[in-house]
Amino acid sequence: MKRSKLYKKFISAGLAAACVLSLAGCGGKGGDGKGTPQGESKEDGKDFVYVAEFQTVDTENVSTSVLSGDTLYYLDGNYNEETEEYIQKIGKIKIGETTPEVLPITIEPNNYVNSMIVEEDGNLLTVINRSEGEGDNWKNVCYLIRYAPDGTELFNQDVTFLGEGMENFYIQGMAEDSQGNIYICGGESNIWILDKEGNKAGEMTADNWINSIFTMPNGNVAVTYWGNEGGMVVNEIDPATKKLGKIYKNLPDAYNGFTAAGENMLLMSGNNKVYAYDITAETSEELVNWINCDVDSDYVRSVSMLEDGRIFAVSVDWSEEKSKTEFIYLTKKPASEVVEKEVITLGTMYIDQEVKRSVIEFNKTNQKYRIEVKEYGADDWEAGRTQLNNEIISGAGPDIIDLTYSSVDLYIAKGILEDLNPFVDGDAEIKREDYVETAFSAYEREGKMYGIVPSFMLSTVVGKTSDVGSEPGWTIDDVMALKASKPEGTELFGYGTKDSALRYCCTTALDSFIDWETGECKFDDGYFEKVLEFANTFPKESQWSEEDDSVPTKIQSGRLLLQELGISNMESYQMHAMMYGEPITFIGFPTNGGTGSYIQAATSLGINSKAKAKEGAWEFLRTFLLEDYQNNNIRWNFPSLRSALDAQFEEAMEQEYYENENGEKVKQPKTTWSYDDWEAEIYAATQEEVDAVKHLIDIVDGVMTNNEEINNIITEEAAAFFEGQKSAKDVADVVQSRVKIYVNENR
């Protein structure tokens, strides 16, 4: 990624945000972007706040930071494209001050500091990696170097010998105990102990790959890894025996950094939250919800607790061409100081990155409303999905519903979703004709609009035109005829099983079997029986083997006919077209009518018909449809605004060039895509290729929906047929009965 020159100065930003907490957790309180803490109605027990203040740090590329007392030491770096050198430097700044100091430590070009410790005497201990050798004989070497605060090199030792016999040795992390022993962990499960002079004093192996290494409150060193019984564990190292000792369990789902905070507490961040873990009781407590504090946790690099009790974090946003570094200070204050906003809840199984960013931006700028996010699938996906459905159906669900993983037609049938047409019609900035029709109308039913699709990908099946014809859409009879026409051993789709074939032909197109408006189902009209018989021609388990040829090799030799394909940009289409090496057709999933291709929403949102602040909910939803979001926030999918989509297509057709030694312009690939052992250079898309994708967008059958309950019914009952216990007709009749009961009970 190219990066522009940056000035080395710190700019203090006066932004403030707030989040109301109780001892049991964090409510979502945020800032107005003008230095005034903002929030909303406090619930019982939420009697204090953590006010988040943001200090923008204008640096080049902060990669690592270490807090020592009241001073933060950090690694900064920049790649010089002219000299092709990466230069790192070490700086420090006193907490609360705005002027940094670059330490007089010289790090040679293309040397990489991957770990850094500030020792008790103020010296800096670093691990530096670099490549040494010439020609094809290169190796990675690691040095342990100690610097005095004035930049004097006190100690320098090659520690590459620690990885003797390891094929890919590298040092992942380092920590120091209260006795000055140095602990180094490799990229797998190895741990080495060195004394203060760098002499090897011990070695051990953890039970699993090491996630992190850090110093405990008692001064001992510990590592974290995934335990044999499931879940992350903290394993303390006994300095006397130099072996792994006590294991601490019951850790929260937070693996992005562990820091000692007080005599018995660890502070850790992850899963959009900050937790405190009591090492005596082995229990955790949620302190902060990052989203509700207007912080994007994806960019939080480290979290620690200052001596005055404030929580301190370093955030580095890599999403733009110029990275943005912020210091975040969370200060505990009385909740009475928080200006109240009206809370709107957003319920989701998993918070999408772009939705998260939009929530944070909305909360920082909107003066009346505030979005609080509840992730139902964060800890247990199945339990969370059941909880979300139960809350929504009972009328106690969130105000805004993420429809991406939801049973949308069930919600529509039960009257749970608000018709968005009045909001669209009354919005001066949003005009239907400006949007891709199939995306904008994806959740339209009987003239009502129940959800928005800001961005999408295309879900389809692709095959050679010579095999499947030129017109999209086919039935199960067509699929079976294709298979019958090919030599034995030819695969329809890679490593297919009975269950995957059933999903391939059925559960991706539930709408063709169910009419939620009338409650009618069509599993007993004979078509579903054909689906079962077709699926039964596949093996029960996947036949994958390490000795198998790759997917591209099978396609090009004609031994693999079809691929299930998600197209999210022109490059993904171009790669597959090149892989087949001849004209291809988006034939789609087999259906009983239609093209068999679908829009798959990257994000889709609706408003609960029982929401109290529907106008506020729409204020949030509309931001996803406006030009600013559509042009600037959609990176990996197709935008729904037609002008933004056209701009994306135009960019895909722009040819890139380089100048050769003769000064001539030569075409160069825009990127390189690989699939298994096959690689393709992607050049500018042709108009014909763009037109093919545009046409597919226009002819899709609608949005791909999901209903796990119905899918489970189909899978459960089909098993009896696959095992030879029931006929296809018997299974079809049972599925018809069970699904019809389910549909009519939930209409």
Structural write-up:
The protein has 747 residues and is α+β, with helices and mostly antiparallel strands. Helix 8 runs antiparallel to helix 9 and helix 9 packs across helix 17. The protein is built from 17 helices and 43 strands.
Give the topology:
Layout lengths: L8 E3 L4 E7 L2 E2 L21 E11 L5 E5 L2 E10 L4 E10 L6 E2 L9 E7 L5 E11 L2 E11 L5 E6 L12 E6 L5 E5 L3 E5 L5 E6 L4 E6 L5 E6 L5 E7 L4 E6 L9 E3 L4 E6 L2 E6 L4 E7 L10 E6 L5 E7 L6 E11 L7 E7 L4 H13 L3 E7 L5 H14 L5 E3 L5 H6 L7 H5 L11 H4 L3 E2 L2 E2 L2 E13 H4 L7 H9 L13 H8 L8 E2 L4 E2 L5 H9 L15 H7 L4 E6 L2 H11 L3 E3 L11 E10 L6 H9 L4 H6 L5 E2 L2 H11 L3 E4 L5 E4 L2 E5 L2 E5 L4 H13 L8 H15 L5 H18 L2
What can be said about this structure in brief?
This protein has 17 helices and 43 strands. It has 747 residues and is an alpha+beta fold.
Keywords for this entry:
747 residues, alpha+beta, seven-stranded antiparallel sheet, 43 strands, 22% helix, disordered N terminus
> What characterizes the major β-sheet?
8 strands, mixed
Shape: globular
Rg from alpha-carbon coordinates = 29 Å
Per DSSP E runs of 2 or more residues, the count of β-strands stands at 43
Q: With helices defined by DSSP (H or I, 4 residues minimum), what is the helix count?
A: 17
Low-confidence stretches: 1-45
Helix content: 10-25%
Structural class, judged by helices and strands? alpha+beta
Oligomer: single chain
User: Strand percentage, roughly?
Assistant: 25-35%
Amino- and carboxy-terminal Cα gap: 51 Å
Question: What is the residue-mean pLDDT, rounded to a whole number?
Answer: 86
